[in-house]
């Protein structure tokens, strides 16, 4: 093989097969919508989607998750599409993962592994890297049997990034010790942040939360005139970013942007990011940002509310913001949203539409003097 051919092979994006299983009352339409999101996740991780495979069953197969016949079909598809990896839309049991890897002879990932890999790719600060590694260790610990040997045969790429790849030969005892070390380090980070927050207790604090890629960072930039990194992709931002925003009639408040949520977000990831998400739990108001143009708006809203409940923020005041109204949303649909969610706000962060109205709404909550508490805003109906 010539040198330029070797380089081209190294630069070639991994080709992935996406596999989804529809069980119970799940419809084929619902499964395909979930596969659309899985495809975005795979592309965010750097893969090219070679093909999609769907199976409808009453329940998952205990050995292969999909039926044995479908597993054989996937094996044939790996050859047909020259696939490097197989990605499942749901989480696999350790035994299922090992059985499938042995049958396919290729890298096999489930949804949580893929999301963790993306977080490892995007972690920039030491805190985010610690949080991602802790989530990886928690997730991989029960899957050590057979997995380290399998990953050790890989040459890198999606599913093998991040701190976890440094410990391919570790056993469960060492992983458990590492989890303890990571928790200790994150506790130290959290203590330092707590001390810093004590100095800002009199300042009104607001937190932007929402599904990934709904425009939270763009909204932060529009309100604060900051230059926070934005991109039209999933999980462009992992670390919480806080900026000062001037509210006429009140003064400065602290507005924080947070990591975007997504359906089936790994539980350990939420737990590991507790220090980053502390800006949500300590906020005076949670500003829930939704993409008004998304065809999956209601489901995304359910995901966001579910994560917020997991963070025990039910009693925190909330404000609903429907963003991206500059897209082809349609006036009748916006009117329907206004009827369903009275008091909600409609913005285009990209076009800076609705910013004055948003600041007035914040003033109504923050009060007319720094540190004052304004009117109570009811959380949106579930």
Structural write-up:
This protein is of the alpha/beta class and 382 residues long. 44% of the residues lie in helices and 16% in strands. It folds into 3 domains: 13-115, GTPase HflX, N-terminal domain (Rossmann fold, 3-Layer(aba) Sandwich), CATH 3.40.50.11060; 123-186, no CATH class; 201-366, 3-Layer(aba) Sandwich (Rossmann fold). The strands form 2 sheets. A 6-stranded mixed sheet has the order 6-7-5-8-9-10, with helices on both faces. It has a 4-stranded parallel sheet with strand order 2-1-3-4, sandwiched between helices. α12 links the parallel β8 (285-291) and β9. α5 (111-122) packs antiparallel against α6 (126-140). The longest helix has 27 residues, at 172-198.
Distinctive features:
disordered C terminus; globular; disordered N terminus; 6-stranded mixed β-sheet; 382 residues; 4-stranded parallel β-sheet; 3 domains; 44% helix; Rossmann fold; single chain; alpha/beta
Please give a quick description of this structure:
This protein is α/β, with parallel strands linked by helices and 382 residues long. It has helices at residues 3-11, 28-44, 68-80, 94-104, 111-122, 126-140, 144-152, 172-198, 216-224, 267-272, 278-281, 297-310, 331-340, 355-366, and strands at 15-23, 48-57, 85-88, 107-109, 205-210, 241-247, 251-257, 285-291, 317-323, 345-346. The chain starts with a helix and ends in a 16-residue tail after the last helix.
